[in-house]
Structure formats: structure tokens, C-alpha cells
Amino acid sequence: MRIVLCGPPGCGKGTQAERLTGQFGIPRLTTGEMLRRAVQAGTPVGQVAQGYMHRGALVPDPVIIDLMRERMTDPDCRGGYILDGFPRNRTQAEACDRMLKAARERVDHVVFFDVPEEEILRRLTGRRECRQCGATFHMTFQPPQQAGRCDRCGAELCQRDDDREETIQRRLAVYREATTPLMEYYGRQGVLRRVSGVGTPETVFATVCSLITRA
Ligand code: AP5
Fold first, then answer.
1. Structure pTM?
2. How far is CA 112 from CA 3, 126, 163, 165, 181, in A?
3. In the prediction, which pLDDT does 131 show?
4. Three-state DSSP class for 40?
5. Which of 17, 92, 121, 194 could cross-link 87 (Cys pair, CB 3.0–4.6 Å)?
6. If pLDDT is split at 50, 70 and 90, which confidence band does 4 have?
7. How far does the centroid of ligand 1 lie from the alpha carbon of residue 12, in Å?
8. In this predicted structure, what is the pLDDT of residue 182?
């Protein structure tokens, strides 16, 4: 099964991708995390991506498409995957379709999360993440057991560089302009599943699972 998760920054793509990975036993391919790791490691991709990410802009399409082409053909992806953060615009969606078609595969479900912007701001300004293992928390909605420490590996929790209010506004504008047209694109393919991302992570997950298994 190949699932795409789409939606505004902070709508819960990563939170739901983690649960879906556990439920369906397929890997989660998270472009934001892949890029943050590349930046941390100072790879050529990371060096290109850093400035764009800091500003809340999209990293150039050729960089992302090459990165995903390589990752999507890894052996652990043979049985399917969850795309978290890709495709993000029409060029990426068309490239994704071409890659899948060449392998005689297709996207089965594109889940679009709707979350109001005031809620997005609350989620992103309170988000904390573990730079060591990638786990995500929220100071109010999903607090760690020990303040400032990751439940999974014990490392220190940090605020993401692009979770400052000014950058969040820029990311929201990029989302509206570049990503929302994908609803029409995937709607025409009959794979669009719109879901309210408001509610607890568990209730949102239950809705996603029921839509996926019913479709
Ligand atoms: P990326 O990391 O993908 O950022 P994003 O799309 O802005 O999404 P987020 O990771 O911020 O949020 P999320 O939807 O995963 O929410 P989460 O589950 O963490 O991309 C970062 C940057 O990389 C981009 O700006 C761009 O520069 C670049 N990039 C990435 N992909 C690219 C691409 N394809 N092309 C070009 N550039 C690309 O949840 C957020 C918070 O809310 C957490 O604290 C969580 O605990 C909490 N939460 C989650 N669900 C709930 C709930 N139901 N109720 C209450 N709280 C909740």
C-alpha cells in the first residue's frame, strides 16, 4: 500500500505517519526529517536545503525528486510506504506518478488533513522534537514524561529552527499556494481522502484507518 499524507505544516502528518507505520508495517518516508538529517550531517543536499528550510520555503524540486527516487527504490519500500511531506506541489506529484508508473505501481490513498490556522500555530509553537531519534512531542497536547527529555531515548528535546511564528506564516503561505492544488490533482485520480485533523491523535488515526480500509 502506498499512502501520501498531505496538509498544512503542523496538521499532524508526522504524528499519523508514525502510527500508520506501526499499523501497516510499511516504512515512513519523511522528507522534512531526511532533509534535517542531511543539514545536520552537512551533506551536499543538506547544504542546498538549509537556507530554504530556514526561510520556510520549499527546497528545489530536482533535489527532492532525486532524494525520493533513491529512497523509494530501497528494498524496505517494496511492500509500500507512507510518504510524509512529498509530493508538495504539482511538479513533485507528476514526478512521483512517473516514478511509480515506471515500477507499475500507484498511489492508493492521499490523505489531506484539514486543521484551522489558529490550531496550527498552537501546535507548532508548542512542538518539541528529539534530534537524536526524531520523536515529536507537544508541551501541552503530548508532553514528555520528564520535562525536556525524550521518552524514547532520553536525549534533550529542542524546538525546530522553522517553528518560529514568522517562518510558520511563510510555510502556511507556501502550503496554500503550492500544495492545496494537489487536492484537485488527486481528486481527479479518485484517491483523495479528506480528513479533519482536529481531535486527539487517536481519534484522527481511527478516522484515517477507517477511510483507508473502506476505500
Ligand atoms: P516538514 O518537516 O515536512 O514540515 P511541515 O510540512 O511543515 O510539517 P511539520 O513537520 O511541521 O508538521 P506535521 O504535519 O508533521 O505535524 P506533527 O505531527 O509534527 O518540512 C520542513 C521543511 O522541509 C519545509 O518547510 C521545506 O523547506 C522542506 N521540505 C520538506 N519536504 C519538502 C518537499 N517535498 N519539497 C520541498 N521542500 C520540502 O505535529 C505538530 C505538533 O502538533 C506536534 O507537537 C504534535 O505533538 C502535535 N499534534 C499532532 N497531532 C495532534 C492532535 N491531533 N492534537 C493535538 N496536537 C497534535
1. 0.95
2. 11, 22, 21, 23, 11
3. 84
4. helix
5. 92
6. very high
7. 7
8. 98
